[in-house]
Amino acid sequence: MSIVRDLSPTAYNAPGTGQLGLSIIQSNKGPNTLPLPLWISNYSPSVYTTYDLSSGFNAVPVLNVNVRIWILIPPQGNTQTITLKGITGDTGIACNPNGPIVLTFPNSAAPTTVGVTAGAAIAGCQLIEI
């Protein structure tokens, strides 16, 4: 059984539905695994593009004003550090340099940029917005 979480606002107007499903394989001490939700957004068309991070602070643009799920995936095998930043002077949140970064935004308003600091230039990140 899967759970669906609709991240769309109550009144939406869009041509399609974007869906995000995460698959996690794990060992479990109990007889049942916990179901993960399938997240959907009926509000915005999906955006898929590549983005190159430069060394240092990057204001990564949010390309769709109605985005609810923002995903940045570094290229396979990346070893350069990636840190989510609120502002350039804060410590930020260190992220897995070889794993996806998934953020969800409120219905009221998505940001226009997401602050990301890279230890060195990282070419070919996948940027997905749903």
Care to describe what's here?
- The protein is mainly beta.
- The protein has a single domain (3-129), classed as Jelly Rolls.
- It is 0% helix and 42% strand.
- It has no helices and eleven strands.
- It has strands at residues 3-6, 18-20, 37-41, 47-53, 56-61, 69-73, 82-85, 93-95, 101-104, 113-118, 122-129.
- It has a four-stranded antiparallel beta sheet with strand order 4-11-6-9, with no helix packed on it. The chain has a four-stranded antiparallel beta sheet with strand order 5-10-7-8, with no helix packed on it. Strands 1-3-2 form a three-stranded mixed beta sheet, with no helix packed on it.
- It is globular and about 40 Å long.
- The relative contact order is 0.30.
- The mean pLDDT is 80.
How is this structure best summarized?
By secondary structure, this protein is mostly beta strands. It has strands at residues 3-6, 18-20, 37-41, 47-53, 56-61, 69-73, 82-85, 93-95, 101-104, 113-118, 122-129. It has one domain (3-129): Jelly Rolls (Sandwich).
